[in-house]
Amino acid sequence: MDIDAVRPFWDAVLGWDVVARDDLQDPLRLGPAVWFQQMDEPRPQRNRIHLDVTVAHDEAPGRIERALAAGGRLVSDDSAPAFWILADPEGNEACVCTWQGRDPAPSD
Predict the structure, then answer these.
(1) Which residues form the Glyoxalase-like domain (predicted)?
(2) What digits encode the pLDDT tens for the residues 43-93?
(3) What is the DSSP letter of 33?
């Protein structure tokens, strides 16, 4: 409902750039842009997303800090440093993930 409230959170979590029409685009312009569609009324059955964003382990703290400063909130750090669950001001979630703290791959 409030694009200006949620866009800074997603910019911080994804680490992308704001481009034309206030879309978010990866800095190399290789992947798809994230576009925020204005809605007239909440649609709880359709307005919830959850993205996992995997970053280098030393990038995660800064990414989380920027997301919180952009209006996000920490939902859970119970699985850190494997991942932290964050939410934007409207409750959409993102996990900032690293390789640390993961179960090792099974060996044959």
Answers:
(1) 2-97
(2) 666 556 778 888 899 999 999 999 999 999 999 999 999 999 999 988 888
(3) P
Q: Considering only CA atoms, which of 28, 24, 13, 32 is closest in space to residue 97?
A: 13
Question: Is the Cβ–Cβ distance between 50 and 60 less than 8 Å?
Answer: no
Tell me the CA distances in angstroms from 46 to 38, 39, 103, 108, one per residue in order: 13, 11, 33, 42
- The DSSP secondary-structure symbol of 22 reads G
In 3D space, the residue among 7, 5, 13 whose CA is nearest the CA of residue 86 turns out to be 13
pTM, two decimal places:
0.72
CATH number of the domain at 3-37+48-97, please?
A: 3.10.180.10
| Buried b or exposed e, range 56-82, using 16+ CB within 10 angstroms | eeeebeebbebbeebbbeeeeeeebbe
